[in-house]
Design goal:
The protein has helices spanning about 10-20, 40-50, 70-75, 85-95, 110-115, 120-135, 150-155, 160-175, 185-195, 215-220, 225-235, 240-250, 255-275, 295-300, 315-325, and strands spanning about 25-30, 55-60, 75-80, 105, 140-145, 180-185, 205, 280-285, 285-290. It is an alpha/beta fold. The chain has two domains: about 15-205, Rossmann fold, CATH 3.40.50; about 215-325, no CATH class. The strands form three sheets. Strands 2-5-6-1-7 form a five-stranded parallel β-sheet. Strands 3-4 form a two-stranded parallel ribbon. β8 (about 280-285) and β9 (about 285-290) form a beta hairpin. α4 crosses α6 (about 120-135), α10 (about 215-220) crosses α11 and α11 (about 225-235) packs parallel to α13. The structure holds adenosine-5'-triphosphate (ATP) and magnesium ion.
């Protein structure tokens, strides 16, 4: 199987490098539609980081998380061998062979001590802060939480979101100890986090969108596509990296592209058919609203000739239904 090289995202990478070059001061939300390449970009960036940065990458997808406690749990990578009480000493030894960690290392005895307590989050955050303070004496720590929508789906209550993100504000804006990046495709959940954690002036947004036409062209040219194949790929698939990858691997490119478009059209037809039978409910504030088929059709038809529309005046339940399901 041929591996496809990472296609450089120059604009986004430049922006991140600029952020990393300055003192940590804001939480960075990395957002963009489903499958646009957020995780791929972050993983690539981690590999390319200079020595003076230490990344801690936590991907919530596929982890066993049913409540806030589980969430706190996955932030850590338990060090079974470490029977240390002194965080300073522990960081010194942990830094020697940190390698690729998928969480914040913690010696098992400290982890158990903290987990027995009633208010765990206070002590866990205290540990993380201490850990980062120690690291920041020699390098800049970067905390990355990927696939945040996993906790969005848990309906974690507002107070916990508030506590978590205020801890991130402490690490960035207040103490300038660590960079914090949070990535998700669920922009509605981001809006909720923004409101519940009162993040005005405390965060910034970085869009990782599907490839634009120029990037798609460069990507496909790099894989030997002719001009007409590129035009066809753009026409049928747009700039979604996963679809483009499928085309790169395919022998009969045009046939596959047509098939992919037909699948997409059928998905939308099926959605409209589904709405003939039921009216999904969307919660806005304290109230529930029904999603009407006509409102969905009205929104989708505005995309007939353009890729982007102004969202003012759109029916809100219908809009949220489409966004929530990444439809
Ligand atoms: N810059 C790139 N160069 C080459 N391939 C890419 C690039 N970006 C994404 N891809 C391909 O597209 C696939 C989907 O990307 P990825 O999983 O990173 O998207 P995502 O935005 O994190 O998705 P999700 O919304 O599900 O979290 C990857 O498996 C990867 O193979
Ligand atoms: Mg991802």
């Amino acid at each position: 199987m041929r591996r496809i090289e990472f296609h450089n995202r120059e604009k986004e990478t430049k922006e991140i490098v600029k952020i990393l070059d300055t003192e940590p001061s804001l939480i960075t939300f990395v957002y963009g539609p489903i499958n646009s390449g957020k995780t791929t970009m972050i993983s690539h960036l981690i590999k390319e980081l200079p020595e003076d940065y230490t990344p801690f990458y936590v991907n919530l997808r596929g982890r066993f998380i049913t409540d806030y406690e589980d969430f706190l749990n996955v932030l850590f990578e338990i060090d079974e061998g470490g029977g240390v009480d002194n965080v300073t000493e522990y960081v010194k030894s942990a830094l020697k062979d940190l390698g690729a960690v998928s969480g914040i290392p913690i010696p098992i005895n400290l982890f158990n001590q903290i987990f027995e307590k009633k208010d765990k989050s206070k002590d866990m955050f205290k540990y993380i802060e201490q850990f980062f303070v120690e690291i920041s004496k020699t390098r800049t720590p970067i905390l990355i939480i990927d696939e945040l929508q996993v906790i969005g789906d848990l309906k974690v209550d507002g107070l916990l979101i508030y506590k978590l993100f205020n801890f991130f504000v402490r690490l960035t804006k207040e103490k300038h100890i660590a960079h914090v990046f949070v990535a998700t495709s669920d922009s509605l959940f981001l809006e909720q986090v923004y409101t519940e954690a009162m993040l005005s002036g405390r965060c910034r947004y970085l869009l990782v969108d599907d490839f634009d036409r120029e990037t798609t062209t460069a990507f496909l040219e790099g894989h030997g596509f002719t001009d007409s194949e590129i035009a066809m790929a753009w026409e049928y698939c747009g700039g979604k990296p996963v679809f483009l990858l499928e085309l790169i691997h395919a022998d009969e490119k045009e046939r596959l592209a047509r098939k992919m478009l037909t699948t997409r059209v059928n998905q939308l037809k099926d959605l409209l058919d589904y709405l003939e039978y039921t009216k999904p409910r969307i919660t806005i504030g304290e109230d529930e609203y029904m999603v009407e088929k006509e409102d969905i059709v009205a929104i989708l038809s505005r995309f007939a000739d353009v890729e982007r529309i102004d969202d003012s005046g759109l029916n809100r339940p219908a809009k949220q239904f489409l966004i929530k399901g990444n439809r």
